[in-house]
Each structure stands twice: as structure tokens, then as C-alpha cells.
Write a structure and sequence with these properties.
Chain lengths: 207, 202
């Protein structure tokens, strides 16, 4: 059996590309935009998000037969909130600078619709290993959009990648200027709009 | 008074919780398809933000902040790491309570807001409001004004978006651009317009 035909691969690739949580399902946009001024913050946010969504999927899937149906939302929120607190405290302890830059947005992972959506829609009805892979796929799909938006914004907004200047001096000397607009909120909306257009076009034309 | 007014104006325009801080995007995209539901959800958000931000202020400064438990003889205890889980529980509980109260006293308002209230519990704008309140060290009065202002700003943005989307229905867009993509681009243009207010100071 080819790798691309296994159930696990499909579970991973679905959310990572075809059903990308941000571009195709329009979920979790809240935090996606705010942390994309620099690649560094976007990368840390991706890690935090992947950690929370894959583990919450795993835990909820393990508990799926013991959670009573009518209070499941509050149980899911409790699991998610505990994982987010773990991620937040870890960043505060070891990467204080980055946690300052991310400010409230790590905490806001709790209300990120992707996590609750996956818990409700996937983890409650699937075995733990698939739920974990689905979580990873969602984290990667979310992260890839985040990182590409951040790459565009950092490259054109401050002329650097991961904080290292890449635009050569000669270009500045020749009159090139960084685009201030890229650092402001509107640019994030417009870039994500254009990316959603591109991805939808690619997915549609494949069919 | 002047500071409060300028805090209010800032939270409505230049520091708009949706257009400058990207909070509450999920319901913004999903519910901005027609004006009536947008207005309904907007009022619900104003209401819940104005109530939950001050309540979370009281809880944070009365129980969770470093040294807040001094009255109980525990001056060294710092429970602020619990704020995320406490805030989200307070918000969920308040939303439930508000729903019950509205149902009891005003059937008309319940019919209007009812379906939106459960949605609001997971709206990041509400939790974001409480977290910003902690991060910016607001006083109690400021937290009331900020909660209300952020709600008004959010409603302004979603109603304007709903109005723009009605016109967009007649636009002839290339394939793939319709729906989410064009909504984001229009939001970007709107965010630029709101940024123009940032020059206004009191």
C-alpha cells in the first residue's frame, strides 16, 4: 500500500492542505493574523498551537467514552485550557522575550475555533492515534499559513527573515524602502485574502 | 473624564478590537452575511463584554493577582497563572446566566439575541477583552469603559462589513476570490480606514 493511500496519511493531509483550517474552513483566523509581523513569533505560535491541538485531540479521544454528552463542551474547554496554561507558563519561564511579544495571543488559543472544532468534530468519534494525527495535521496546516503570511510581512516590511537582514545594502542605497504598510494590521488581512484565493483556485482546478 | 473619553474613542476606532487586534474574526466572517443578524450579534457582544470585563477585573484583583489573597492571610500566593481557565469559565457562566435572565424578562430580546449568546462564549473578542484588561493594568472604571468601547467597535465593524457584503453580491469576481478571500481583502481596506482615527487625541 502506498503511503499516500493509508488512512493515517489522509487524516494528516486533509487538514494540512485540502481542508486547511484557515484558508478553506475559515477557522482560527483570530490569532493567525496578530502574530505574523515577524517569523519568529509566528513560528513559536505554530509550535504552541500544534502542541495544544494534537494533545487535546489525543486526550479527548481517550476520554471519549467516559465524557457525558451534555457536559462535553465544558470538559473539552477544561482540557484545552489546561494545555494552554502549560504552553503559556513554559514560554514565560524559558522564552520570556517571545512570550512578551505574543502577549495575550497564547491565552487566546483557548478560544481558537480550530481546537474546539476538531475536538467536537473529530476526536469524539475517532480512536486516539488518528485523533492525534488529525491534530498534527491541523497544526501544520495552520502553521503553514501563519508562516507564509509572516514571511511576506517580515521580508517586505522590515527586509529581514527570522530577524536577519536579507535585503542587501545596495538596494537601499539605490532608493529601495521597506513597506511600512506590511507591518500594520490591514496588510495581514489583504495577504491572507490573496492566499485564500490562490489556494482555493489551486484546489478547485485540481478537481 | 477626558482620559476615559479618549480610552473609549481609542477602543472604538484606532484600537478596534477586531480591525487592529484581529479578535472575534470567526464570527465576524460567519455572521456578516446580513445586516439584521450582524446587528443582533453586535448588541450581544457589547452586552457581554461590558458585563464580563469588570467582573473578571474584580475576580482578578480580588483573588488571583499576586498578593490579592492577603486578606485570607496568604500574602505570598500568586494565582495569576489560573487566569485563563477562570476567565473562560466566568465568561461561559455569565453567558449562560444572561441567557436565562433575558429569557425570563424579555421574550422579544431573547428571540433576537437568543441564538447568538452561546456563540459568544467562544468568541475571542470577549476573552481578549479580559486579557487586555489585565495586560494594560486598568482600573475598575477603565475596565467598564474599555469593555463597552471594545464592544461598540466590534459591532461597528461587523455592521459595516454586512453592509459591504450586500453590495458585493452583485460584483463579478474571479473564481476562488468570492466568499472568504474577498471578505478578508475588504476587511483590510476597512482596517486602513479605521487607522486614520489614530491621529485623534484628546
Amino acid at each position: 500500500m502506498k503511503l499516500t493511500r493509508t488512512k493515517a496519511f489522509k487524516t494528516f493531509a486533509g487538514p494540512a492542505w485540502y481542508e486547511n483550517p484557515i484558508n478553506m474552513q475559515m477557522l482560527g483566523i483570530c490569532s493567525a493574523l496578530a502574530v505574523t509581523v515577524q517569523l519568529k513569533t509566528a513560528f513559536v505560535m505554530t509550535l504552541a498551537m500544534t502542541f495544544v491541538v494534537s494533545l487535546s485531540n489525543l486526550i479527548i479521544s481517550l476520554l471519549r467514552n467516559v465524557i457525558p454528552g451534555n457536559i462535553r463542551i465544558i470538559v473539552e474547554l477544561a482540557v484545552i485550557a489546561s494545555l494552554v496554561i502549560l504552553a503559556d507558563e513554559f514560554l514565560r519561564a524559558y522564552y520570556f522575550e517571545i512570550s512578551k511579544l505574543l502577549s495575550v495571543f497564547v491565552g487566546l488559543i483557548i478560544t481558537n475555533c480550530i481546537i474546539l472544532g476538531r475536538a467536537e468534530g473529530f476526536a469524539l468519534s475517532n480512536p486516539p492515534h488518528l485523533a492525534f494525527i488529525d491534530g498534527l495535521g491541523n497544526g501544520v496546516g495552520y502553521g503553514s499559513v501563519l508562516m507564509s503570511v509572516a514571511l511576506i510581512r517580515e521580508l517586505f516590511g522590515s527586509g529581514s527573515i527570522f530577524g536577519y537582514t536579507v535585503v542587501p545594502e545596495r538596494l537601499y542605497a539605490a532608493g529601495y524602502e521597506d513597506m511600512g504598510l506590511m507591518l500594520l494590521a490591514p496588510a495581514a488581512f489583504i495577504i491572507i485574502g490573496l492566499m485564500a484565493w490562490l489556494q482555493k483556485y489551486l484546489v478547485n482546478s485540481r478537481k | 473624564m477626558v482620559e476615559l473619553l479618549s480610552l473609549f474613542l481609542n477602543s472604538v476606532f484606532a484600537g478596534n478590537i477586531l480591525l487592529a487586534y484581529f479578535l472575534g474574526m470567526c464570527s465576524f466572517v460567519a455572521v456578516s452575511k446580513n445586516i439584521e443578524t450582524a446587528v443582533g450579534l453586535g448588541f450581544a457582544v457589547i452586552f457581554v463584554l461590558t458585563v464580563t470585563t469588570p467582573i473578571n477585573w474584580l475576580i482578578f484583583h480580588g483573588l488571583l493577582a499576586p498578593g490579592a489573597l492577603a486578606w485570607a492571610g496568604l500574602p505570598d500566593v500568586d494565582l495569576s497563572f489560573l487566569k485563563l481557565i477562570i476567565f473562560i469559565s466566568v465568561i461561559a457562566a455569565m453567558v449562560q446566566a444572561i441567557e436565562i435572565i433575558i429569557d425570563r424578562f424579555s421574550a422579544a430580546l431573547y428571540a433576537g439575541l437568543g441564538i447568538f449568546l452561546p456563540l459568544i462564549a467562544v468568541n475571542c473578542a470577549i476573552l481578549g477583552g479580559s486579557l487586555f484588561m489585565v495586560e494594560r493594568n486598568m482600573t475598575f472604571i477603565e475596565s467598564v469603559v474599555f469593555g463597552f468601547g471594545a464592544g461598540v467597535g466590534w459591532m461597528l465593524a461587523i455592521v459595516a462589513m454586512a453592509a459591504a457584503r450586500i453590495k458585493l453580491r452583485y460584483a463579478d469576481l474571479p473564481s476562488g476570490l468570492e466568499g472568504f478571500a474577498i471578505t478578508m481583502i475588504v476587511t483590510g481596506l476597512m482596517a486602513m480606514a479605521f487607522m486614520l482615527f489614530s491621529g485623534i487625541t484628546m
